Amino acid sequence: MSTSSIDRPLQLGDRAPNIVLDAISREGKIALDDFRGRSPLLVGLFRGLHCPFCRRHVAAMAQLNPALKEKGIECLAVIKTPVERARLYFRYHPLPDLLSASDPEGASHRAFGLPILELTENETEWPHKLGMDAVMTMRIDLPGELPEPMNPAAAGDFLEKKDGYKITEADRQIMIAGHMPLIGEFLLDREGVVRWSFTEAEEEGQNVCRAPNPKELMSAASQVAH
């Protein structure tokens, strides 16, 4: 597995590194090199199943999966949750046909240049530090999920209660106190070159806990599919 890290998220035109991970949705390993020369690939790098926003982002990727497959594009959800824990979760919350892999060490996040955000009291130095004073001014709007726009901390608490997700010891093992790995999605062409991306590291924090716009993603997919 590649464990090298870069100091910024991969940009358009960058070649994605190879990473080799334990498959969640089947036995064995999944490597990014498996797709090179064969098909474009949408890679989603998520915090873990303990994150209510990530659970929704993974489900959203699964919803788009059939339309992307029609364009010849594969999807891979990389989840920072130990593989046995993830397999147990998806046994009860199945996402048919979505390829998924476990990366509890966060090697893929580092390889794609996604930073780990330190949560501070009042010091913000984006994308490495974020003050809780700034968090309280942010608003997440999820119509149908949240009763009103809420700050990320309050929204996360609300969704946890709504979902009834129980944090296990396996979840705690990969959680970093006072820190939050940033997440993102990268659309790679057949040669593994980034052609579109959406990350929480962009936009000075405006993307935190948000998912990409499906129309924008599908528009980019149409370009990559040609």
From TrEMBL:
Domain Thioredoxin: 10-226
Matches recorded under InterPro entries: AhpC/TSA (IPR000866), Thioredoxin-like_sf (IPR036249), Thioredoxin_domain (IPR013766)
Superkingdom of this protein's organism: Bacteria
Any GO MF annotation of the entry: antioxidant activity
UniProt name for this protein: AhpC/TSA family protein
Taxonomic placement: Bacteria, Pseudomonadati, Pseudomonadota, Alphaproteobacteria, Hyphomicrobiales
